[in-house]
Amino acid sequence: TAGRGPRTPRAKATDVELITGRNSVLEALRAKIPATSLTLASRVEFDDRVREIIHLANGRGIPIVEVMRPELDRLAGPDGVHQGVALTVPPYEYAQPLDLLDQVIASGQTPLLVVLDGVTDPRNLGAIIRSTAAFGGHGVIVPQRRSVGMTASAWKTSAGAAARTPVAMAGNLTNLLKDLKARGVFVLGLDGGGSVSLPELQLSNEPLAIVVGSEGKGLSRLVTETCGAIVSIPISAATESLNAGIAASVVLYQVSTTRAAAGA
Description:
Blueprint: E1 11-12, E2 17-20, H1 22-30, E3 37-41, H2 48-59, E4 64-67, H3 69-76, E5 85-89, E6 93-94, H4 97-106, E7 112-117, H5 122-134, E8 139-143, H6 152-157, E9 167-170, H7 173-182, E10 186-190, E11 196-197, E12 208-213, H8 221-226, E13 229-232, H9 244-262
Parallel strand pairs: 3-4, 7-8, 7-12, 8-9, 10-12, 10-13, 11-13
Antiparallel strand pairs: 1-6, 2-5, 3-5
Helix pairs in contact: 1-2, 5-9
């Protein structure tokens, strides 16, 4: 599928992430989160979780390093409860947004991208990546500042979709949206007060970038002004709003079903 090739390593997170604790490390390995090494405390007490952790690490060829417990205490930091195990996760290699768009266009497909404006919860990012993969989207774009990045939590929530759905990083979100528009992509913002109701959306078969706002404040002013249209999702009066992950899923489903009906 387009957009799922090798990722461009030009935009990269700065620090590795350390996952500590037996349950967290085991869940990360089960979710196949990329990892560079597994660190065990010397003479760690073995239980079923530790045995499975070692088995999964060996199966994936992840190096296992044994250190004295004080060294693992130092690595985990004062707030890290490691229980004798820690998993090192490398920096995520982000795609370049316009490279991602070019890949989709070159494949002959109609671009469908999701852009996040200030989403800070990694679980929402993971859920959006999962929905993007499920409904035929080609990638997710996050801004470099004031936004969640690809953490282990986001990987885990994506339930494996992060391994096949690229995430790109934009240095300036407003400028990127203008660049997308210049390349023929219609930029669609999501907001509860939007002037276009989702069932009335007539743009599903066009190249689309769906912009999802932050969990609390929604779309920023500059991003709102840059969008070609703002769409709202009709919901029951008993529900104040939908969170970012659910809102993105609903719109992606609507677009995917419309495209399927039209054979796009």
